[in-house]
Amino acid sequence: MSLTDTDLSPNQDFFNEEEAVVEFTPNESFFSSTSVLTLLASFDPSFADLVADFARDLPDATGQISVEDGRFDANLLLADGTALTGTFDAPTTLRGFADLAAVSDGTFTLDGGILEAAIATDGQTATLPPVDLSAAAGTFVLDAINAIDATVPFANGAFTLDLATALGPLSGTVDVAGGDLNLDLATPFGQLVADIDFEDDAVFPFSTALPLVGDINGVVDFNSGNIVASSSVYGDLSVPLSAVTGSLNFADGLASLDASVPISPSLSLPVATDLTIGPLASEYVAGFVQDLNGTGTLTDGVLDAAIESPLGLFETAFDVVAFTNQGADFFAGVDGVIDVSGGIATASLTTPLGDINDSFDLATVAPALEGSAAVPI
Length: 377
Prior knowledge:
Helix content: 10-25%
Distance between the termini: 38 Å
Largest sheet: 8 strands, antiparallel
């Protein structure tokens, strides 16, 4: 039975159907989707409406979602007594998208951070509306940083990254010593090399105290590449970030810098301050993308692009099929349960990247489904 044959009236318990198969041919609606709901609507508008209603009802639901090898089985009860049961197989779904990408071809242009594209699949060609890729890149960076839960070492003015993420490994250096943000990173999307000047507001205050010295107030000034402080004993101090050692601790979307600043041959100043790394990096990356121009082609699911940036020509190849299959492999290693009660979902999951034991507010689900993944022009 296909979704288009399913009666989605209030008396029809769609989630209790034994089989629900989406029969889908990509069209312009699919390629121009900018949110989860508009993407679902390209499959079937009625199903998208059903998902939207389900998301709005979630805060009043109770029950459990069990996960085995990436297969999500829901057994929930709404406040009005309606039972919601159903299964979503994430690995199978993603591999289906990989198969779709493998037979897709297209062309892309990037001008001032604005992306335009035309994609052909199964004999149908669709033109995407212009998309502000700079806004999408900024949002992606912010979400990626907020998802990091790790301690990153800092020495000689640079952070050294070696992280596992849901999208793949992220490694390399982020150098902040010279008044600019120097990126040299190996990412799941290819090598990222960038040099972005810090703005005047990239300044973070701190205060500390030393025995026999007293209170010391100062700032970590990324714009000048120095840590600046003043004390009654040593007067005004300015120490280059290249002379500082320490660590940057990421947790729950926050970043805290713990560093040791040498102020004499026998004395170091401890510095601890919270950094708004996510919003700062998001803003700078968005600005960097606005300076990009280039073209690309998609052939059998492999994207080849040549992009001009202020740093020169950047050429890359990105295998969309392999990347999507990698996502499928990740979900295939997810097991556990998600308990739903009182508007809160509490997850206890094992994943290839480690355990997830966290809670989130179900009232945020509906806005997230409606939110844009990229900003159309």
